[in-house]
Design brief:
Number of strands: 18
Helix content: 25-40%
Oligomer: single chain
Number of helices: 13
Shape: globular
Strand content: 15-25%
Radius of gyration: 22 Å
């Protein structure tokens, strides 16, 4: 079941503005693909209608010149924390008043959309002092963002076992009724981690919801039990960030990876750092998991909260780290934050081919490795329309060396400031 499926508004249909936007046509001109082709791409009705050689497509539609850009399937964010995002600099205790959580969630979602993520899965704490207020705030943010980015919520109760867990179980069921489309939480902090996981899986089976659990993954026996319980559950089970797997002996970690692969469990790693929902630091052993056949996706985790005060929430940074630190090919690294992330969220596949959803990201550059290295300028397409643009210009003073070497430059117009030139990013 796609994350977005239960997230439709309760009205009888989409707004007229959104319907008109999805029905309109858009022509993306002169985009470079990862296979080296330069193409035009026509979008309509929220899907890719046609892909042809540059200059071959016509349309009575708006045109976007993508010359100098690499066109990719859009990224997705499978592990966000909108309720705590952007709270690291708060004076005093972090506010969980509805308006404050909604504002943080909305701002964080727009920042991540600008980075290129057109679908977000936000893990939301329920219970404790905030009760269901944070969940209500995230769901309100989801409604206000509809048409810009698809936002879904994971309900995260603190305790689910023993006498103290009764309230958590009731609240988890209430959160699903409210509109949380994924059930999750952190078994590691419950006195009975196995009982916690069993309770989550039971509620997920009752409601037909995906499961997304936080775990450090440092206890191989616990992972084995989780894999045994999760095997075959539909619509699927994800766990993360599993940084503790990387601290286990290689043979132990390898057995755990084999068990997760056999159960069909997806691991969502966090290359940019951990988050408040799991103890420990470090990144899951990406190459070991991939070699075992584990479904691997990557997320961003904490975004400028106490867990990671400098978290960017940028999927391309996550891909960059997977390539630079974990040794993945750029194509595999980007796939972890795009195709694999969408699959983990139950969303349809995206390719730059006719018939696929028009969820696209254009990044300045002509090759994926360069785009991951210097991904400054970006154009984001969601449901067939441009929903975000980021443009970057870098300026240098005149240099005799640059002139002598005939380095690429873009001169300023006449009358501009003397002694300065303007250039775009290296491609």
């Amino acid at each position: 079941m796609p994350d977005s499926q239960p997230q439709q508004p309760h009205s009888s249909g989409s707004s007229s503005g959104e319907s008109a936007a999805e029905a309109s046509s858009l022509l993306l001109c002169g985009a470079r693909l990862t296979d080296g082709r330069t193409v035009d791409v026509r979008l309509g009705g929220g899907h890719i209608e046609a892909v042809g050689t540059a200059g071959s497509l016509t349309a009575h539609a708006a045109r976007v010149d993508l010359g100098g850009y690499l066109l990719l399937p859009a990224a997705a964010e499978p592990h966000a924390h909108g309720d705590t995002a952007l709270s690291a600099d708060a004076e005093g205790p972090v506010s969980y008043e509805l308006a404050d959580v909604q504002r943080r969630t909305t701002e964080a979602a727009l920042l991540q959309l600008g980075h290129g993520a057109t679908a977000l899965r936000s893990h939301v704490r329920i219970g404790d002092l905030q009760g269901l207020t944070s969940m209500e705030a995230v769901l309100q943010a989801r409604r206000s963002l509809r048409g810009l980015v698809d936002l879904t919520a994971v309900a995260m109760p603190r305790l689910l076992t023993g006498a103290a867990g009764a309230d958590g179980l009731a609240m988890l069921r209430d959160a699903v009724k409210m509109g949380a489309s994924v059930v999750g939480g952190c078994p590691d902090v419950d006195p009975d981690p196995t009982g916690y996981a069993e309770a989550v899986l039971e509620i997920a089976a009752e409601h037909g919801c995906p499961v997304d659990l936080h775990t450090d993954g440092s206890d191989p026996a616990r992972l084995a039990r989780l894999a045994a319980m999760a095997g075959g559950l539909r619509p699927g089970v994800s766990i993360g960030p599993c940084g503790g797997l990387g601290r286990l002996p290689a043979d132990v970690a390898s057995r755990a990876a084999d068990q997760l692969a056999a159960a069909g469990v997806t691991v969502v790693c966090l290359p940019q750092g951990g988050c408040g929902g799991a103890e420990g630091r470090g990144v899951a052993p990406v190459r070991l998991l991939r070699s075992a056949g584990v479904r691997l996706a990557a997320g961003s985790g904490a975004m400028r909260d106490v867990s990671n005060p400098v978290g960017r929430g940028d999927p391309l940074e996550a891909a960059y780290l997977l390539a630079s630190r974990s040794g993945l090919r750029p194509e595999d690294a980007y796939g972890a934050v795009s195709g694999a992330a969408r699959a983990a969220m139950g969303l349809p596949e995206v390719r730059v081919e006719a018939g696929f959803p028009a969820e696209l990201l254009a990044v300045r550059g002509d090759r994926l490795a360069g785009a991951l290295s210097l991904a400054y300028s970006r154009i984001v397409v969601h449901r067939g329309r441009v929903v975000a643009r980021t443009s970057a210009v870098r300026e240098y003073c005149d240099s005799a060396a640059a002139v002598a070497l005939d380095l690429p430059r873009q001169g300023r117009s006449k009358g501009s400031e003397q002694g300065r030139t303007k250039g775009g990013e290296p491609s």
